[in-house]
Design a protein that fits this description.
The chain is built from 13 helices and 25 strands. The chain is α/β, with parallel strands linked by helices. A hairpin with a 6-residue loop joins β14 and β15.
């Protein structure tokens, strides 16, 4: 039995920020993670590698567009080279994290293995060396999430985000025909990346809209901006994936026919099929046995990140509240501060002010309460917009489609939320998110001088439109 002050189950965004903060404060911390490296799925197969591919796709698309404006020289895309670039970025960041960890080695240990909760203070770690037990006053559960693979016949023939974006992935050739099962952000993003490089892409989404669960008006604003060559089928229930002798895959799916009763079956051929039907929380073994409260397969946590068991916290994807890396980081730091404060709820995480970006080509992002959520609460917000057709930066890049839309509380003019569809959306949403989190008003935004000629000018211009 090894005794430490804090154990984290996981070494990703929900774990290592807290581990570093606690170690710097003199606590002895053990991080347990099956990968044996820091940064979790974000660096292993998510945010960083996928965006390394995305940015090359964006540059490639921009270069093609700028050929009309005098850019000379042959423009080509080497997908294997793109994957190599992704790998270089991942290796760079793993090296960086290892150096950060080494600087705190006296008080912070990373243990590779699978953790099991024995009780509210004891974790058993199974590794290639056998079993070890760790005991601590505090445990931070940050075991993340994993790809959800529905029980569809032939699902084993599909690739997942792990196959596409993992370090040293075997997926180095661009498929001529790609079928994506799932029109959520992972599936839709990947569809636009690979389409930009020349793949023929079909997206099959079971629900009635792509990006299910997001504001329908927000989605309706983004959908026309996506490459029209991407075939999108909503209401598609995938029944099977089959493989022919020549390696060709066929995806069979059912769609409702409004002109007839019942569904009709259709098929689409592919050289690769991406399973992007969502993710599920990875709850550590022993959670139920020790009495940890679970709901819909996730660990229940309050805004102080406390679970129902004293001394146990749950951060990031495992609590399912905002399954994004940057949200996990914020939650991790809140948990650390509350542990340092004597296991008291001294700090709270604002789940309502976390930016979400869909990194499609082009991007779209939102934060706070948008139209659908406000209407559901019975709030008729004041809306104001800025159209990118008027924007100097958008005109420079010939990306004039899209908008900035802000939602203000009547009377107080406090900013409740907003979205950006189009150029620089992922960059702009942070400014709007900060304004939402700090309760800023339309007056505050209108008075701020955003830099020219940048698309961020549209935020203050949208606010000024109210006056």
């Amino acid at each position: 039995m090894q005794h430490v002050d804090v154990i984290t189950l996981g070494a990703g965004g929900g774990a290592y920020p807290a581990a570093f903060r606690l170690a710097r404060s003199g606590r002895r911390v053990a991080m347990v993670d099956p990968k044996g490296v820091m940064s979790g799925n974000c660096l292993a197969e998510g945010c960083v590698p996928s965006k390394a591919v995305r940015e090359v796709a964006e540059l490639y698309r921009t270069a093609q567009r700028f050929e009309r404006f005098g850019l000379s020289g042959e423009i080509g895309a080497d997908f294997a080279g793109v994957v190599a670039h992704k790998d270089r970025v991942q290796r760079t960041r793993y090296t960086q994290h290892a150096a950060e960890l080494a600087r705190l080695a006296e008080r912070l240990t990373l243990v590779q293995g699978v953790a099991r909760l024995q009780d509210a203070y004891t974790v058993v770690v199974e590794s290639e060396h056998g079993e070890e037990s760790y005991r601590a006053e505090h445990i931070i559960i940050a075991s993340g999430s994993d790809v959800f693979v529905p029980p569809i016949p032939g699902a084993e023939l599909c690739v997942t985000s792990h196959d596409l974006y993992a370090l040293d992935s075997s997926f180095k050739s661009l498929p001529r025909r790609l079928v994506v099962i799932g029109g959520g952000y992972i599936g839709l993003e990947t569809a636009t990346f690979l389409r930009a490089f020349g793949a023929e892409v079909t997206v099959l989404e079971m629900m009635d809209q792509i990006l299910p669960g997001m504001d329908p008006d927000f989605v309706a604003g983004l959908a026309p901006l996506l490459d029209p060559a991407i075939r999108r089928v909503t209401g598609a229930k995938v029944e099977a994936i089959e493989k022919a002798a020549d390696g060709t895959l066929t995806v069979r799916y059912a769609v409702g026919d409004k002109n007839e009763t019942g569904d009709k079956t259709e098929t689409v051929a592919a050289d690769a099929v991406l399973m992007a039907a969502g993710r599920h929380a990875v709850v550590p073994e022993g959670a139920e046995a020790i009495g940890l409260e679970l709901q819909r397969g996730r660990v229940v946590a309050d805004t102080a990140l406390r679970t129902n068991l004293p001394g146990l916290y749950a951060c990031g994807d495992v609590n399912g509240r905002v399954p994004l890396f940057h949200a996990a980081v914020g939650q991790s730091l809140i948990a650390a501060r509350n542990i340092l404060g004597g296991d008291q709820a001294l700090d709270y995480f604002d789940f309502g002010a976390v930016p979400t970006t869909i990194f499609t080509l082009p991007t779209a992002a939102y934060v706070g309460h948008t139209r659908a959520a406000l209407k559901a609460r019975g709030i008729e917000a004041l809306e104001t917009t800025y159209n990118f057709a008027e924007d100097s930066r958008a005109q420079i890049f010939d990306e004039t489609q899209g908008e900035i839309r802000l939602f203000f509380e009547p009377g107080t003019l406090r900013l409740l939320g907003g979205w950006i569809i189009g150029i620089d959306a992922g960059q702009l949403v942070g400014e709007i998110g900060l304004a939402v989190s700090k309760g800023l008003t339309a007056h505050d935004l209108a008075a701020f001088c955003d830099q020219h000629p940048m698309a961020s000018e549209g935020i203050s211009k949208a606010a000024r439109a109210l006056f």
